[in-house]
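Hey, sorry to bother you again with one of my protein questions. A protein chain has come my way and I'm curious about its shape. It would help a lot if you went through both lines with me. I owe you a coffee for this, so here goes:
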Amino acid sequence: EATREARAAAESRRARTGAAVEHASRERDEAGRAVDQGERDLAEALAAHGFGDEAALLGARRSAQARAALRDAVAADRGERARVAAAAAALGPDEPAGDVVAREAAAVAARATLAEAQREAGSLDERAGQLAAVASRAASWAGDGDDAERRWRTARAVSDAVNGRHDGKTRLSRYVLLEQFDRVAACASARLDVMSDGRFALRRRESRQTGGEFELVVDDAYAGSVERPVATLSGGEMFMASLAMALGLSDVVQAWAGGVRVESLFVDEGFGTLDEEALDKAVSVLEQLGETRRMVGVVSHVPELRKRIPARLEVVRSERGAATRASLRGRHGG
């Protein structure tokens, strides 16, 4: 049954294919007849217009410009013939025709010369316009080039200044840091002046060596304002200078950080290196900070500080190890 169905389907496809082949054969025959008729029509048209074959027709073709020029020439010839005929009709009985023909030929030559001169003048005008446009563009380009060069020079000068390619040889970032460092040193010097009774002042040493610009020196008023390296300070003096720098940094941060307040300051050790007078001055400075609503914490084991610090958190030994206890007393033990 499957074989019979397949055979029937094959017979159906063969019948359809045969019909398609027959239809295509008819279309091919009709196309052939149309081609033959077209070739006959083309041969008759070529013969009627004086062409031997299609190649002669293609060889005789003219461009649109050539056809326009031929039409202009025919029109000019017709106009010329009309003018000659009018001139001949207007001749008197005694005027020879040869003179008229000569004058007419001279007029034609003059008109041809005039037309050529007009064409040349038009060509020159067009060329002059093109040259003017080129000159305008060149002037615009020159202006753009000058403007670009000015902008480049400005950008180059800014780049050199920012990147330290100048006499000072200081980059902008380093310059800003030095400026801030000078502000910290100035604030610290004001603090140190109070703690040292006007003896010491801090400042930055001017140096062109990279990294040397951040070196601090101390002016000692007791030695005639002689410049001293900070390394020559004693332990107590070094502690006061370090404390002054911390306080100066705090002042600068508060002034430049958009209203940020440094409300807490912790000082870790260093008080053991101070004598009694220096210790009293340092603690006085810390007490003044506390009066400006800032908390100052001191980490120390110096017994003298217990008398000066009212609020303490003491770490003591116990059987279970270290323990803490809070103590709050008056400013002088009351």
